[in-house]
Design goal:
Blueprint (H helix, E strand, L loop, with lengths): L2 H4 L6 E2 L2 E2 L8 H14 L3 H15 L5 E3 L1 H7 L3 E6 L10 H14 L3 E6 L3 H13 L2 E7 H6 L1 H9 L3 E5 L6 H13 L5 E3 L10 H24 L5 E5 L4 H7 L9 E9 L10 H4 L1 E5 L2 E5 L24 H8 L3 E7 H15 L5 H16 L4 E6 L7 H8 L8
Parallel strand pairs: 4-14, 5-6, 5-8, 6-7, 9-10, 9-14, 10-13
Antiparallel strand pairs: 1-2, 3-4, 11-12
Length: 403
């Protein structure tokens, strides 16, 4: 039996991580979602509709591109990009949002509720809600609303209600808290569409499965382009949905090395980074067990990343497990390195990447110089339209940028 079929366990555990630690009033609703997913995931009508959506609405498959110019500049390994930025709405998030919304439709739900950090999940879910004729409620921290204004506009244009979250650090963790509280009052008519491979079971498995389409595509596309498998596969990790998506295509291949890239921010102290696996320890957050960053009271620590979609003090339980068994190597990229990669991909390849994806590009650029003759496949999980105002106003246009 392959890895993906064997993990997680029936109760949603990846080794010691995962599970569902939720209020009793939520238990029957999460059980209902899990049972519906298990039933529909092998239902031919559900699968056929999802495949139609992926091809005719999302524009899948997205291509794999050889980043030839950047590879020459780095002077080492050959860098390739899985172009999820070309997926409809500009990121990988629609892969699971359309799946979750279709699930909600089959369950007879009328409303989608979610959190968002960078806004890509919010935009994707608002898109799915519009496609299926559903209501949509998105909770977003006020800090992220200010940083990611273009995505806030897109969500509202798509008909979603954007709920500003003004407590705590006013970022992704608080948005999750707020969305959960709202969902508690609307469980009969709504589904909480979690935006990553985090949260209580069955969401880490369900979101991974929906995202695995990009990994299977990338594996076949890379082999068709080169006749080989990549030596390395690299993806950024906040909650970790894009990474689990692309890792899924290679996880049973012992010859392919998998790399998750966390946000190292501006320093090693708590509150200056969001490198959860690098500096964290086992704990419980938002109804599941994972490696997480804790403060001196054992509570979720404050975090920072230049990328709003990565500033979360936890990480997906599957990533926690893959780290403990050594299947995936987790490194990091600083804000400074990320900005350099943002400008580099823009200048050398004509692609403006999301700041989240720029972490993976930065890591691949560092790796390339020390791995001559090898190949690195990067999941370019999103485009940077949402980030250009923030980057140019705060850091300029990269006129002084140097590799």
């Amino acid at each position: 039996m392959g890895y993906l079929k064997s993990m997680p366990s029936k109760d949603g555990f990846f080794g010691d991580f995962g599970g569902a630690f939720i209020p009793p009033q939520l238990e029957p609703h999460f059980k209902e979602i899990g049972e519906a997913y298990e039933r529909l995931s092998v239902d031919s009508s559900y699968i056929a509709e999802l495949r139609y959506i992926r091809k005719h609405f999302q524009g899948r498959p997205t291509p794999v591109q050889h980043a030839k110019n950047l590879s020459i500049e780095m002077g080492g390994a050959q860098i390739y990009l899985k172009r999820e930025d070309l997926n409809h709405t500009g990121a990988h998030k629609l892969n699971h949002c359309m799946g979750e919304a279709l699930l909600a439709k089959f369950m007879g739900k009328k409303k989608l509720i979610a959190e968002t950090g960078a806004g890509q999940h919010g935009v994707a879910l608002a898109t799915a809600a519009a496609y299926f004729g559903m209501e949509c409620e998105i909770h977003m921290g006020e800090v992220d609303i200010a940083k990611e204004h273009p995505n806030v506009v897109r969500m509202k244009l798509l008909g979603a209600t954007v709920v500003p979250v003004s407590f705590g650090a006013k970022t992704l963790k608080e948005a999750v808290d707020s969305a959960f509280m709202s969902y508690l009052e609307q469980t009969e008519d709504a589904i909480y569409a979690i935006g990553s491979v985090v949260g209580p079971h069955p969401f880490p498995k369900m979101v991974r499965d929906f995202q695995s389409v990009l990994g299977y595509e990338a594996r076949d596309q890379f082999h068709e382009m080169t006749g080989n498998d990549p030596d390395h596969v690299v993806a950024c990790v906040g909650g970790g949905s894009n990474a689990m998506g692309i890792f899924s295509g290679f996880i049973d291949n012992e010859d392919v090395k998998l790399h998750g890239v966390e946000p190292h921010g501006t320093g090693t102290e708590l509150g200056k980074h969001a490198a959860t696996i690098t500096y964290g320890e086992p704990g419980e957050i938002h109804g599941f067990k994972c490696i997480m960053l804790k403060d001196d009271k054992g509570e979720p620590a404050p975090v920072h990343s230049i990328a709003s979609g990565l500033d979360y003090p936890g990480v997906g339980p599957e990533h926690s497990y893959l780290h403990t068994i050594g299947k995936v190597h987790y490194g990091s990229a600083s804000d400074e390195e990320t900005l350099k990669a943002f400008y580099a991909l823009s200048r050398y390849e004509g692609i403006i990447p999301a700041l989240e994806s720029s972490h993976a590009v930065a890591y691949a650029m560092k790796m390339a110089m020390s791995h001559p003759g090898e190949s690195i496949l990067v999941n370019l999980s999103g485009r940077g339209d949402k980030d250009i105002d923030y980057v140019t106003e705060k850091f300029g246009f990269g006129d002084d940028f140097k590799l």
